[in-house]
Amino acid sequence: MKLRTILPFALLLAATSVSAQGVKVGLRVGANVNKIDGKSFTDEFRFGYHLGGAAEIMFSEKWGIQPEVLFNQSNPRTGYSFDTLYESVNPGSLKDVKLNYLSIPLLLNYRPVKFITFQAGPQFSVLMSKDRSLLKDGQEAFKNGDLSLLGGVQVSIFNFRVYGRYGIGLANINDIDNRDKWKSQTIQVGAGFNF
């Protein structure tokens, strides 16, 4: 519901700056392979997806920034030790969790050659929806935001973009207590088209 309001506004805002020199806007879509580090979760990467918009703003031939607005889905699975730390709904069983984030990466772009761009920067994420059945009585398990550091490479072929990124969470997203620190890890692979 929030995505339908925010995404068109962000794309409209980006489209108004298209007339500026060195600015391109486009769409992005791809797969997330993510997990949550912490003894409460299984040590396995699980699939999700991302989609949204991006603006490439080049200050020179080699340097620029790339702000994006993405809908990111994460699907971690709790481990058996979750029940020893917290009282869950289904003791002794693994539980799939679905987390939906609105993420805003702000990437610094370095383009050594015309078709390859190295990227790095922070990603700020707001938790839009979460599984409330993880704890008894619908208690909140996850914090409402996450901060990650991204790094990767993007290949440009005319207006098409293919990219791969690795993101590591810098913030503890456990909102229950401090007995276990939960930090996100994400590998993103995607494609895009610039207008």
Question: What count of helical segments does DSSP give?
Answer: 2
**Main β-sheet: number of strands, strand sense, barrel status?**
8 strands, antiparallel, barrel
Structural class: mainly beta
What's the overall average pLDDT, rounded?
86
Radius of gyration: 18 Å
Query: Outline, from the CA principal axes?
Result: elongated
Q: Report the uncertain regions.
A: 12-20
Report on this structure:
There is one protein chain. The chain is mainly beta and 195 residues long. The protein is built from 2 helices and 8 strands; from the N terminus they run αβββαβββββ. It has helices at 2-16, 82-85; strands at 23-37, 46-58, 63-74, 99-113, 116-130, 145-157, 160-169, 183-194. The protein has an 8-stranded antiparallel barrel. Residues 12-20 have low confidence and may be disordered.
Main attributes of the structure:
8-stranded antiparallel β-barrel, 195 residues, mainly beta, 10% helix
